Amino acid sequence: MTSEEIFSTALVYEKKIRDLYRSAVETIDDDRGKALFKALADDEQGHVKFLEYSLGILKEQKQLDMEKPDTAIPLPARDLEKIQEMAHKIPKNILGDLKRVLNAALSLEIETSRFYHDAIQKTEQGPVRDILKKFYDIEQRHVEVVQIELDFASNNGYWFNFMETDMED
Questions:
Q1: pLDDT range class, residue 10, cuts 50, 70, 90
Q2: Domains of the chain
């Protein structure tokens, strides 16, 4: 697979997940849910723009911009006190359509991450591989954020991949 083919395929993945997040903004009634999905949609739109730009650069055989892609999605905090505080701020009434959207988003984010992981393995060292690694790291962050939200919405006892309560005590 050439660099252009890899970026073209990545563009399909990024547009698909961006469109899901955009539709979620319209579907979810809760302001916090809307804000989350808007931030994720904006992040994915930045990836789309970068990939479109990079495809043009590759066709012209010029140097790729290594400063991008980037993400506005922060790494989730791992401090248990902060986790508990955040859990209490999420309104219970956002859990209807939210779980459906989060499940779809998680599947797409995992699929996109796998694509980037596989593409990294098939690409020689250089700027294209470095960009793919950045995209993989960003998508892994998206997977984690969506999983965290889904854990809470599902009320399965997990939060940030930690068991929130111990059922044996």
A1: very high
A2: 3-163 (1.20.1260.10)
